[in-house]
Amino acid sequence: MTTIALRGISKRFGLQLALDDVSLELKAGERVAVVGENGAGKSSLMNVLYGLYAADRGEVHVDGRAVRIRTPADALALGIGMVHQHFTLVPTLTVVENVVLGREPTRLGLLDARRARDEVQATCARFGFSLDLGARVETLTVGSQQKVEIVKALHRGVRTLILDEPTAVLTPQEADELFSVTRRLSDEGLTVVLISHKLKEVLTFATRIAVLRRGVKVAEVAASASTPESLAELMVGHRVPTTTATDPRPSEVVVALEGVSAGKLCDVSCVIRAGEVVGIAGVDGNGQRELAEVLTGLRAVDGGTLTLLGDPARLNPGRARALGVAHVPEDRLKHAIVGDFSVAENVALGRQRQAPFAKGPRIDVEGRLARTTALLEAHDVRPRSPGLRIGALSGGNQQKLVVGRELDGAPKLLVAVQPTRGLDLAAVDAVRARLLDFRARGGAVLLVSLDLDEVLTLSDRVLVLHEGRLTGEFQRGAFDERLIGQRMLGVLDA
């Protein structure tokens, strides 16, 4: 039975110390979770074990013997495999072809297709996987593609399997199935390591949990003796407040869609009212992006009617903003900020011709400075330096600034797409609190998030999208996570 020990692992990227003297032991048959905030070092540690990074200091021991893991091929030779959050499958190849890729059985110099299928079928049977081996990967659900990645690793004989944020884009049913798979694997004597930020899932999965903070292992605890709150406190070093929604007070309709089609979006009808958060649940790529783009004027409607504040609207980004639509985009670095501009210049983006940012045709430097200073204070953006290049701020402070800017000026509708992705726990809570405060003041919020927990935490109503169509609507107080997951998969008769 394989035992792996990482001893005194340190890794630096330029001036940043990503790992500082981290030690961790992995025993056969264990399910170990590695948790920490973004930048805590959890992925870096596992990437060292898998041979993607070379440690600056420290050793890796396998079964008591020091080994050098320079590449993933070295790791695989030692029985260590890793399934990344972004899959490495070839979409146009079949399941069998993907599993044997690079290690194809041959006969007379050609692929022995029958032998390949038999060998992959034997691997699936041994570990209890059910897959259509002849299906092209591009036709499979995300959950099934993940199974292919796991089978691919198992087919190469791994005894230690690392899963990096494996449930990020899975439905609740697919996540449950994944954890059932991990339990079967550990029963077979395999070691399974989970990297995750979803603390409830960590407690479901793990027997033991290692907590990293700023590159240092600060704790190692039994899952049975832990709670989400205790883990969060270990991760950040202090108690973390949690934001929860109060009862909604929806009023007039702010935006209405009637049979709207645009790109993947197909015949969608819904309304969003003032004083409510409407969350969109769905597996990535099922029309969420198109819906957000339609409402913010970034995409024209192909069919149907969009009505904003009672008037039919043909939107472009400028007109959408003028009518009171604010937008927190999915990727702040590409679509929300200019990294080389100052904080004050970024606050003025889109409003640079309006007071208090301008006086007539001229920039109002004092007015811009005053508004920026007030916004930094109100949204706790640090450091409070209007002249600082925004690229020098942390991701969390950049996002708080974007949210604050978009809520400045009393918009009617906020379209928030993945507003907390990549943020630490404190920044997540701050952003969520701002969204709920805007809603409490009578604003309408459309929330698009791949984190179903976030959708259920913040939303007053949840709309489910599957292949561009609405497949369900759920009210707060009647949220059914299992049923929402089925609608996300397109199952309508459950």
Could you tell me the CATH topology label of the largest domain.
Rossmann fold
The major pleated sheet works out as: 6 strands, mixed
Name the CATH architecture of the largest domain. 3-Layer(aba) Sandwich
Please state the overall shape, judged from the principal axes of the Cα atoms: globular
Distance between the termini: 43 Å
> What is the H level of CATH, i.e. the homologous superfamily of the largest domain?
P-loop containing nucleotide triphosphate hydrolases
Q: What topology, given as strand order, has the largest sheet?
A: 6-9-10-3-11-12
Nearest-integer average pLDDT: 92
Low-confidence stretches: none
The CATH C-level class name of the largest domain: Alpha Beta
| Helicity range | 25-40%
Helix count from the secondary structure assignment: 17
- Please tell me the total number of domains: 3
Number of strands: 24
Strand content: 25-35%
| Rg of Cα set | 25 Å
Structural class: alpha/beta
Describe what this molecule looks like in 3D.
The chain is of the alpha/beta class and 494 residues long. It has three domains: 4-236, Rossmann fold, CATH 3.40.50.300; 241-324 and 411-494, 3-Layer(aba) Sandwich (Rossmann fold); 346-410, no CATH class. Helices cover 33% and strands 26% of the residues. Helix 14 packs parallel to helix 15. The relative contact order is 0.11.
